[in-house]
Amino acid sequence: MKTKILVTGGAGYIGSILVPALLNKGYEVTVFDNMMFQQSSFLDCCFHPDFHFINADVRNTERLKEAMKGKDILIPLAALVGAPLCNKDTTSTIAINKEAVVIMNKFRSKNQLVLYPTTNSGYGIGQEGIYCTEETPLKPISLYGVTKSEAEYELLQSENVITFRLATVFGCSPRMRLDLLVNDFTFRAFSQRYIVLFEAHFKRNYIHVRDVAKAFMFAIDNFDRMKNTTYNVGLSSANLSKMELCLEIKKQIPDFFITESEINSDPDQRNYIVSNDKIESFGYQPDFGIQAGITELIKGFSILSPNKYSNV
């Protein structure tokens, strides 16, 4: 019998990479997504006999409960992602990012495994020079960080759960996003050749979208020895300030002009560095560095129409 996986929000930025990877490994995958961005990520998966799609919203509890039946693994990706989108619709953010996850957890059987992505933006404002580990208290700044952290807490009160505190994700995906920091800064360098930075010294960690998918696959293969806890997932070589990130981009786009402003402040005030030692101790290692991601993005920006690829 094939392992059956339900991925809510599976047509999003991460799911559009993860779902084909799961199919290629021989899993039977059902995607549950309301297609709010009119994306068409999975037209090339429709031929696959083990691919199934349900066009529905996770706030529809009855449809969600029905979709969960008979599944071995649940991957709740459905979320309103990022501070601007969450602030635009706070009611939906709470319902989708937290309440739908709690409902899924309530109605799943004890034997159904859960792999849940949250965000290391939950660390908020860190201490200079001190790495955030999985033991560091969460101090989320944004509604997005709060709802994801609260959903993670609820899940970790249960058994057969693994959660990932993802670094800021980058790279190309069939459901592309340009509002993620590496993607955004690289697009500005590619299209405008300049950027004005606020709080250029603020740091955070980064991870390629394909390495996020790899983390899910790795956790499925190693579930019993990794279960019932959380893991930071990021590039240990990429705890970078905004200025350092821009200088990495400038290596490939030399005429990229970078300047700083002391007048305004960044609406996203998170500032931290992160240790990924815990998941690496189990044998997980990312495949894509920052420079490889920038190369990929530059290729992608020659193809896409930018006004389609943002969450707000």
Descriptive report:
With 312 residues, the protein is α/β, with parallel strands linked by helices. The chain has a domain at 4-169 and 206-234 and 271-289: Rossmann fold (3-Layer(aba) Sandwich). 35% of the residues lie in helices and 21% in strands. The chain has helices at 15-24, 61-68, 83-88, 90-107, 143-155, 181-191, 209-221, 223-226, 242-250, 277-280, 290-301; strands at 4-8, 28-33, 51-55, 73-76, 113-119, 131-132, 161-166, 168-170, 194-198, 203-208, 229-233, 239-241, 257-261, 273-274. The mean pLDDT is 94.
Distance between the termini: 42 Å
The biggest sheet, with number of strands, parallel, antiparallel or mixed sense and barrel status, is: 7 strands, parallel
* Count of helical regions: 11
Write down the secondary-structure element order: EHEEHEHHEEHEEHEEHHEEHEEHH
CATH top level class name of one domain = Alpha Beta
Blueprint (SSEs and pairs):
Elements: E1 4-8, H1 15-24, E2 28-33, E3 51-55, H2 61-68, E4 73-76, H3 83-88, H4 90-107, E5 113-119, E6 131-132, H5 143-155, E7 161-166, E8 168-170, H6 181-191, E9 194-198, E10 203-208, H7 209-221, H8 223-226, E11 229-233, E12 239-241, H9 242-250, E13 257-261, E14 273-274, H10 277-280, H11 290-301
Parallel strand pairs: 1-2, 1-4, 2-3, 4-5, 5-7, 6-14, 7-11, 8-10, 9-13
Antiparallel strand pairs: 10-12
Helix pairs in contact: 1-7, 2-4, 4-5, 6-9, 6-11
